[in-house]
Structures are given as C-alpha cells and as structure tokens.
Amino acid sequence: MELNGQWNAADSMDPRKYQCAHCDVLVGPDTGYFCNESLYEWAYIYICPNCNRPTYFEFDNQIPSPRYGNEVEYLPEEIEKVYKEIRDCMSHQLFTAAVLLARKLLMNIAVDSGAKEGDNFVSYVNFLEDEGIIPKNGRDWVDAIRQAGNIATHKIPSIDKELAEKIVTFLEILLRIKYEMPGRMAKN
Ligand SMILES: [Zn+2]
C-alpha cells in the first residue's frame, strides 16, 4: 500500500544511508526525527524517501532491520509472499522458521515444475536435480538441505545461522533459474 502525505514537523538531519526494510531500496534520507535525550543524540527516526515509511536507529542498530538476501523478479504471487517471509525470518534471526519455510518453498517449486504432490522432501529435491533445475555444481547445497533433517520425521531440526544462510542463498538461485530467467527471456 502506498503511504502518501507528509510526516508532521520532520527535521532535517545528517543524511544516513541504509537499506529500507519496507521497500528493499537503498536510500539516503536527510529528514526525520531525533531524541535529544543526552548530550549527543543516538536515537533517530528516518523517513524513507522512496516509500515514505519510518525506520528507527539506536546507534547503528536498524529497526526494522533490512531484509536478508536479494529480491527475485517474476515470481508467482504466492511464491513471492513466502520468499519475502523467509527473508524476514532471516533478518530477525529466526533461522529454524526460515529453513522450514524454505523447504516448503522447494516443494512448491518442484510441484510447479511437474512433481506430484504429497511426496517427501528428498524426492522433491531429487526431482529438481533430475529436471536440471538444480545446477550440476549445486551438490553441496543439496547436501546442506538434506542435512537440515526431514520434516516428515516430526523432529524440529536445529538450524544455525550458517546453514540457514546457505539454504536461503540456494533457494534464491533456484528461484532465479526457475522464474526470473525465463521471465526476462520472455520479456526480450
Ligand atoms: Zn522504503
């Protein structure tokens, strides 16, 4: 939704460069609000010049923090929604949630590519491999995902940051191969 209108009595401030978590754009606004609580100010609110939404800074801590990873174009609406949610989980250190959703999205990609529904996770990964959607040199990534345990066992896998980052990066590459590249080709 677009947020139009003017923020009331916003001050001009030193410009600050950051990636806006609301709209994903790298911005450098110079208006907003500060809290003159102590001898020097360390709490600021900047207004994004692209989407007009506020971001709070406490020293260098940005709230909401920028979305992890990169935007992928030409995604079907449902897939885009889940991918955004995964990136939000990552930027809030919710690594297990991110990976569980990433695995769900992998299944969606497989079904979207012709795999039959209701199979187990490993069979979906195999399907994506057989279809060439997972690139040949993507073996390490596939193994990382397999390591992340199997939801079908009803065990919640324990996921650390490094593994979650691996899996989400892999997912981004897959989304580019499956949706963005064909989308760009069709456009040209
Ligand atoms: Zn913005």
Protein architecture, described:
The protein is of the alpha+beta class and 188 residues long. The protein has two domains: 11-63; 77-187, Four Helix Bundle (Hemerythrin (Met), subunit A), CATH 1.20.120. Helix content is 42%, strand content 12%. The protein contains five helices and seven strands, in the order βββββββααααα. The protein has helices spanning 77-91, 95-112, 121-130, 139-147, 161-187; strands at residues 11-12, 18-19, 26-27, 31-34, 43-47, 54-58, 61-63. Helix 2 runs parallel beside helix 5. The radius of gyration is 20 Å and the shape is elongated. The two termini are 29 Å apart. Bound molecules: zinc ion. Zinc ion is lined by residues 20, 22-23, 25, 48, 50-51, 53.
Write the layout of secondary structure elements.
Layout: E1 11-12, E2 18-19, E3 26-27, E4 31-34, E5 43-47, E6 54-58, E7 61-63, H1 77-91, H2 95-112, H3 121-130, H4 139-147, H5 161-187
Antiparallel strand pairs: 1-4, 2-3, 4-5, 5-6, 6-7
Helix pairs in contact: 1-2, 2-3, 2-5, 4-5
Bound molecules: zinc ion.
Low-confidence stretches: none
Q: Please, what is the oligomeric state?
A: single chain
Strand order within the widest sheet?
1-4-5-6-7
Helix amount, in percent? 40-55%
CATH architecture call of the largest domain: Up-down Bundle
H/E element order: EEEEEEEHHHHH
Measured on Cα atoms, how large is the radius of gyration? 20 Å
Instruction: Please identify the top-level CATH class of the largest domain.
Output: Mainly Alpha
| Measured distance between first and last alpha carbons | 29 Å
Determine the structural class based on helices, strands and strand pairing: alpha+beta
- Please state roughly what percent of the residues sit in beta strands, choosing from under 5%, 5-15%, 15-25%, 25-35%, 35-45% or over 45%: 5-15%
* Outline type: elongated
